[in-house]
User: Which sequence fits this backbone?
């Protein structure tokens, strides 16, 4: 009986470990292709010159690895374009497109690449630099270890894990116009605030009912 119980416990542990590993934010089979990543980073700068400015080797380049995650790539591609901004493109070693800046730091545990929407863009009452995406990378395996906030939050402006992820959006002359998660709130051009109007229901930021 004891051996049977031990086998059951070991099988359950194996299932749990497999489930955890399947949630790794970096899945090589669905990673964004390196060419697409370099096209985004380099813009109009010739790629050979661009690569020499950002990293000696694109395969081991932290910013290239960070942008291989589809959720991160899509977010940066969207907010780097800024077609209505009159600002020039960033140099590839400083930013991406017209509206995203980034910085890479290194520690014994690996690289950390931080992206944020630049104040160079005309956002009126928004506070774009508060919206930051941080990607931690193992510099030995070159795998992404962690992404903050969660990729679901990056992919969906309404996604939340708890009520604290939600913020209230304000409008021009209006005190409240809707809800979003805390990554996208600072990007709302008419402003946002930490109010009580919104809550998290079934992983979506929604208007709270009177009971909540």
Assistant:
């Amino acid at each position: 009986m004891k051996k049977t119980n031990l086998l059951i416990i070991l099988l359950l542990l194996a299932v749990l470990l497999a489930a955890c590993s399947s949630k790794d934010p970096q899945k090589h089979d669905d990673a964004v292709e390196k060419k697409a990543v370099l096209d985004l980073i380099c813009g109009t700068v010739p790629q050979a010159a661009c690569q020499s400015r950002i990293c000696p080797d694109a395969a081991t380049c932290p910013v290239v690895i960070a942008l291989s995650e589809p959720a991160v790539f899509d977010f940066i591609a969207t907010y780097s374009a800024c077609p209505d901004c009159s600002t020039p493109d960033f140099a590839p070693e400083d930013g991406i497109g017209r509206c995203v800046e980034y910085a890479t730091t290194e520690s014994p545990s690996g690289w950390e690449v931080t992206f944020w929407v630049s104040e160079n863009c005309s956002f009126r009452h928004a506070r774009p630099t508060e919206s930051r995406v941080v990607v931690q990378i193992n510099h030995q395996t070159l795998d992404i270890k962690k992404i903050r906030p969660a990729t679901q939050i990056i992919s969906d402006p309404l996604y939340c894990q708890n009520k604290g992820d939600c913020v209230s959006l304000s409008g021009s002359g209006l005190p409240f116009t809707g809800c979003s998660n805390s990554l996208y709130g600072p990007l709302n051009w008419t402003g946002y605030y930490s109010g009580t109007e919104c809550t998290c229901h079934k992983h979506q930021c929604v208007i709270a009912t009177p009971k909540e």
User: Anything to note?
Assistant: The helical segments are 2-21, 34-42, 47-54, 62-66, 70-81, 151-155. The first helix runs from residue 2 to 21. Confidence is low (pLDDT under 50) at residues 6-10, 12-27.
